[in-house]
Amino acid sequence: MDIEKVNSMDFGEFVDVFGNVIERCPLIAAAVWSKRPFSDLGDLEKHFFAFIDGLPLSGQEGVLRCHPELAGRELQWGRLTAESQREQRAAGLQNLGAAERLRLTELTAQYRARFGFPFVLAVRLSDPAAAPRELSRRLRCPPAQELRTALGEVKKICHLRLADLLGEQP
Ligand code: 2AL
User: Is the distance from the beta carbon of residue 88 to the nearest atom of ligand 1 less than 6 Å?
Assistant: First the structure.
């Protein structure tokens, strides 16, 4: 799909196609449609990122809370969005051993208890061993810093999903 095709989309089609580039946040695509025409992928993603950056703290936390846990029950039960399912499977998170899964479950629970939102990591950019390592490191970060880090991961996921849709190299 090229950028002319994106610019020619009506509102409904645009939200159908881009509604999950920010996980389970179609409202963001609905807002970004008003910003067309877009010059290229970078321009398009800039508007998604600007929307997130412009949200109040409660909205930014809400965006994070729309993400599923890594290697959680939804993955085992096949209840994730198609994009998440693909990403978590490709990262090998469905095939963790029992001990590794338990370790990840414990760490993600600690993370959620500390920060009030799920741990978010762009898993396509890391290997399976990176998730527990990153979790342990980020668990020790101050909350304001961690919010920024987590939103940075949301933007990386968004970039990869947009690149997939536009058929570009990320
Ligand atoms: C995810 C997900 O579903 N895909 C990805 O890259 N990261 N979830 C998460 N909590 O980090």
Answer: yes
